[in-house]
TrEMBL record, chain A:
The keyword Membrane applies. This is Multiple sugar transport system permease protein. It comes from the Bacteria. The chain crosses the membrane at residues 31-52, 97-116, 128-149, 175-197, 229-249, 255-276, 285-305. Belongs to the binding-protein-dependent transport system permease family.
Automatic annotation (TrEMBL), chain B:
The chain crosses the membrane at residues 12-32, 69-93, 105-126, 138-159, 180-202, 240-259. This is Multiple sugar transport system permease protein. Pfam families: BPD_transp_1. SUPFAM superfamilies: MetI-like. Its main location: membrane. CDD domains: TM_PBP2. InterPro entries: MetI-like (IPR000515), MetI-like_sf (IPR035906). Residues 70-259 form the ABC transmembrane type-1 domain. Belongs to the binding-protein-dependent transport system permease family. It is found in: Cell membrane. PANTHER family: ABC TRANSPORTER PERMEASE PROTEIN MG189-RELATED, ABC TRANSPORTER PERMEASE PROTEIN MG189-RELATED-RELATED. It comes from Paenibacillus lactis.
From TrEMBL, chain C:
This is Multiple sugar transport system substrate-binding protein. The lineage of its organism: Bacteria, Bacillati, Bacillota, Bacilli, Bacillales. Pfam families: SBP_bac_1. It comes from the Bacteria. Residues 1-26 form the signal peptide. Gene3D superfamilies: Periplasmic binding protein-like II (3.40.190.10). Keywords: Cell membrane, Lipoprotein, Membrane, Palmitate, Signal, Sugar transport, Transport.
Length: 314, 274, 412
């Protein structure tokens, strides 16, 4: 009924108008812009404009709490950062987190997704449980992990047997960053799982049926149907997790609570804690903004490379 | 690996259960800590000492207005998720399946947007919101967040995998591209839209930095901010904090549990044949 | 290629135009609130972060302020945390909705004062006729920078040294220590298995107290590597080398009070906040609070907080009056009941009657002083903590002299 009446109204508008509209709704060019327009408007107003303001700050000596007294100092912030070995230390830590965590959490997430995509009793519960760390406050999770990874618990005893020192992990400069990686993997695996889960859902069943007719083994079906189909999603997961890895903050803040950010002794400093420390905590927002701009350039490069190697050819 | 799957079933269950326990442990411990008096923090104590006092405070202390905060959170999260459900898929579809000049640029805009820590632009955003008179209103809490670069990117990646044959078939049936999007792609991408909704829901519900900055009167607090706002001590009362975490996480768990059922294998079969 | 460039530059021009237009719009912000004509009320906004009880007390003060200052309407704004306050403040100032005055502690105030966030109140005191004579000189001095007064003191309390009474008695030890040498001797006796003799939190507050007890101090950045400071740091390092000290972090905790409450350390430097915390965290614990032991002299830090008027306050005189009203006897008594020692001389005596466990600290009120951190306070304390953690938790192998020299070189 409703479909009929809408058609009826459309007909009233006259054939010419209808076909004009139709061609609009069918043209890649207009539709492309039409569909991205709501995003672009919001983006320009709520991202680009604020970002440009912050970008301008990166050339200023700007006190966070007295922005009206900011002075332009050219590239001074940038040169100062590039001469600060703490910045490169932080950058190295960020890269370490990404390099260690991303492969593990991607594979773990895929494994979890495959597990809970099976015919399994109570799989709703399992899905929820695996997703739990992602939705629970990271501060709470970190607090709990800190209780488990302190000297003398069964976990540190266990790792002690494996050759790690039996120490409080987050208080030891050797293990603190690894501790952050464990937290990050644990959090991000749930995210990876549900993205993969929906990816698995959308693989057309006919592809598997066709594979079965050709007598493909389960492994081959996985290798030649599932994996290629999930490739764009995998690219998404890897690049998003890379960004998330670079931006990891809550966990480190929880470890450093009551102390200096990046504790112990700067062993868990990252580019984001570096920005936070200088830009917000030391109120030197110009310097902090410059750090973010540099960080932005680096991570853009990484994503560009990832796209080249992981994303499909269009 | 190929045919042994049935004989492996007990192992599958055992493995999944072990993994499940591992993943559930921190949250279980959070629940445990939320029901013990402060003096037992860091120790295991018998259920005889458990108490709901920490939760009761939230509902009896005048400083807390949990129902109001809950309502605020529902409104904020609902509006943001709905906005994301309209704006992101459209942009994602345009980037995945339409050819137009400027597309490459928009793609990199989307990607670049994700990379800036929000803290960096928070002050200008705050001033923006204030100049519109939107401080402490739902407008300020929702409008800037109706899109998310992350989810546009995600949906683009999903839509790329939608076979072009579907769109061509739609064309033969007389649908425009716009029609094909709303009638074919949108329903077809159901599970990815569910995923996006779940992620957007969890992200918005749990957000602290933004709502605590843009809305800082007790009437406009959202749950996470409100539960963190009122401290009764000089130092952190861990059980109270954990009780707050449990209270604010339960709705997301419920939301997820209800929606994960929508993941039904092979849903895309519906449109393929023919 | 050319086409793409054109597109991009068109886009940039567009963005720029947008930005210019927006900045122009932002330029003519609504003019400041007009001073109320006679009879009209002036609204003063007070911002604070703290507990629910604090809010209640302030709300009461807001309700009664008209009795003394009928022209002022006081609005209380609570921030979820100090971090949240500082995060929001720049935006609030830009948008013209920042509070007119706030309460803050002297641990971080020097930095904000020197960075021009607050207004000196000397002229305002003259103009409004508030009575600064109610506050002792030691308190006022903390809030005086370069000869200018910045804060109206609210409370002050010396740092303390806490001893687990049960452990002390069980070990058969006699009088409580008055010097670090006696502390070390006792710590060796108290050091048993899991329990460490002394908790030395590698945190600026605690380290500063060691430094002061040797007659040292940071001198606002000028005397970071003074011989007294080096001696104090050597003492700390020595206690770690002897295995009688523990930092909360390596025991798996956040701060010293937690270790103390869990009976994993017998002694610790600390402050008045121990009382409220221990009451919940370990209600059965018996503890003793004494002045910080001597290195070479009596010395410890004073924790003070005060009301300060922001430099962007719309009506500074009204703000100062309201700030002064916060120190009225009723409000101060209410805070006293929560454990704060009022900076009003006439009330302080009662405080020690109400909090007998702190009685031993009364003499320390005379000689305790401000922290004396450099202008870049947070950068300094972060650096200090980082260096000490590097030594104790990371085995950097530096000496006390090297550590302080390194830090001094960054804060000329």
């Amino acid at each position: 009924m409703s479909e009929y009446s809408s058609k009826h109204v459309g007909a009233k508008g006259g054939k010419i108008k209808q076909s004009w509209l139709r061609s609009l709704a069918d043209s890649d060019k207009t539709l492309g812009w039409l569909f991205t327009l709501p995003f672009l408007i919001l983006w320009a107003w709520w991202f680009l404009y604020p970002f440009i303001q912050s970008f301008v700050r990166s050339f200023q000596d700007a006190n966070f709490a007295a922005l009206d007294q900011a002075k332009f100092i050219g590239l001074e912030n940038y040169t100062a950062i590039l001469h600060d070995k703490e910045f490169f230390r932080a950058l190295l830590h960020s890269l370490e987190i990404v390099v260690i965590s991303i492969p593990i959490q991607t594979l773990l997430g895929l494994l979890l997704a495959i597990l809970v995509n099976q015919k399994l009793k109570g799989k709703g519960i399992f899905r929820t449980v695996f997703f739990l760390p992602y939705i629970t406050s990271q501060i709470a999770i970190t607090t709990v992990f800190m209780m488990m990874f302190k000297q003398g618990t069964f976990l540190t005893d266990f790792f002690g047997v494996l050759g790690f020192g039996n120490v409080t992990w987050f208080a030891d400069t050797r293990y603190a960053l690894l501790f952050v990686c464990i937290l990050f993997i644990f959090q991000q695996a749930g995210f990876t799982m549900i993205v993969y889960l929906s990816g698995l859902q959308e693989i057309p069943k006919d592809l598997y049926e066709a594979g079965e007719i050709d007598g493909a083994s389960k492994w081959n079906k996985f290798r030649y149907i599932t994996v290629p189909y999930l490739k764009p999603i995998t690219f998404f997961i890897v690049s998003v997790s890379t960004i998330a890895g670079f931006q990891i903050y809550d966990q480190i803040a929880a470890i450093s609570r009551y102390g200096a950010l990046g504790s112990p002794a700067g062993a868990t400093s990252t580019v984001v804690t570096y920005f936070y420390q200088h830009g917000i905590r030391y109120m030197n927002i110009g310097y902090g903004s410059a750090a973010v701009v540099l960080f932005f350039i680096i991570i853009m490069l990484i994503t560009y490379l990832q796209k080249k190697f992981l994303d499909e050819k269009e | 690996m190929k045919t042994r799957i049935n004989s492996n079933r007990p192992f599958l269950y055992i493995g999944t259960i072990i993994l499940g326990l591992l993943f559930a442990l921190p949250f279980l411990y959070t629940i445990y800590t939320s029901v013990i008096p402060m003096r037992y923090v860091n120790t295991l104590t018998s259920p005889a000492n458990w108490t709901f006092e920490n939760f009761k405070v939230f509902f009896t202390n005048d400083a807390y207005n949990v129902p109001r905060w809950f309502l605020n959170t529902v409104i904020m999260t609902g509006a943001v998720v709905l906005g994301n459900l309209v704006i992101n898929p459209m942009a994602g579809f345009a980037l995945a399946k339409l050819n137009f000049r400027g597309k490459g640029l928009i793609y990199w805009i989307v990607v670049a947007t994700m990379m800036v820590p929000y803290h960096m632009i928070l002050i200008p955003v705050y001033v923006n919101v204030a100049q519109l008179g939107w401080l402490n209103t739902f407008w300020g809490l929702t409008v800037p967040f109706l899109y998310q670069g992350l989810y546009i990117f995600m949906l683009r990646q999903f839509f790329i995998s939608v076979p072009n044959e579907f769109l061509e078939a739609a064309r033969i049936d007389g649908l425009t591209k716009m029609g094909a999007f709303w009638r074919i792609v949108y329903p077809l991408a159901r599970s990815s839209l569910i995923t996006m909704s779940i992620l957007a829901f969890a992200g918005t519900w749990n957000s602290y930095l933004i709502p605590s900055t843009l809305a800082n009167t007790p009437e406009m607090y959202v749950l996470v901010v409100g539960l963190n706002s009122v401290k009764d001590m000089f130092f952190e009362n861990t059980p109270m904090i954990m009780a707050g975490v449990v209270l604010s996480t339960l709705p997301i768990i419920l939301f997820f549990f209800l929606f994960q059922r929508q993941y039904i294998e092979g849903i895309s079969n519906a449109g393929v044949k023919g | 290629m050319g086409k793409v460039n054109k597109k991009i530059s068109a886009m940039l021009v567009l963005c720029l135009a947008l930005v210019v237009a927006l900045t122009a719009c932002g330029g003519n912000k609504s003019a400041d609130n007009k001073e109320g004509a006679s009879g009209e009320k002036v609204t003063v906004n007070f911002g604070f972060w703290g507990t629910a009880q604090d809010l209640e007390i302030y709300q009461k003060a807001a309700d009664t302020i008209s009795e003394k200052y009928p022209e002022i309407e006081l609005k209380i704004k609570q921030y979820p945390s100090s971090e949240q306050f500082w995060n929001t403040l720049p935006g609030e100032i830009a948008a013209g909705v920042a509070p007119d005055f706030i309460k803050m502690s002297n641990e971080g105030a020097y930095e904000y004062i020197n960075k021009g966030l607050f207004t000196p109140i000397d002229d305002l005191v003259q103009a409004t006729g508030v009575d600064m004579g109610r506050f002792p000189d030691t308190s006022k001095k903390i809030w005086n920078v370069d000869g200018k007064q910045y804060g109206i003191p609210n409370s002050d309390m010396p740092a303390m040294f806490f001893i687990n009474e049960q452990m002390w008695k069980d070990a058969g030890l006699g009088d409580y220590p008055t010097t670090w040498d006696e502390v070390i001797e006792a710590a060796k006796v108290l050091n048993k298995g899991n329990v460490k003799g002394i908790i030395v939190n590698l945190d600026a507050f605690h380290i500063t107290n060691y430094v002061k007890s040797f007659g040292g101090g940071w001198g606002n950045g000028k005397t970071i590597n003074s011989p007294e400071n080096v001696k104090a740091l050597e003492l700390i390092i020595d206690m770690y080398n002897q295995g009688i000290a523990v930092t909360p972090k390596s025991a798996g905790f956040g701060w010293d009070g937690e270790v103390f409450a869990n009976s994993l350390g017998a002694m610790s430097t600390g402050g008045y906040w121990y009382k409220g915390y221990l009451k919940d965290a370990n209600p059965d614990m018996k503890y003793v609070a004494i002045p910080v032991p001597k290195g070479t002299t009596n010395g410890s830090t004073m924790s003070s907080d005060a009301y300060m008027v922001l430099k962007d306050a719309k009506n500074k005189e009204a703000a100062l009056k309201a700030a002064y009203y916060m120190t009225n006897d009723d409000t101060q008594t209410a805070f006293m009941d929560l454990g704060f020692n009022p900076a009003v001389s006439s009330l302080s005596e009662k405080y020690f009657e109400k909090n007998p466990e702190f009685k031993a600290l009364q003499p320390a009120l005379e000689y305790s002083t401000d922290y004396g951190y450099p202008t870049d306070t947070k950068r300094f304390t972060d650096e200090l903590v980082k260096e000490l953690e590097g030594l104790v938790l990371g085995g950097s192998g530096k000496t006390a002299q090297q550590i302080l020299d390194d830090i001094q070189s960054q804060f000329q």
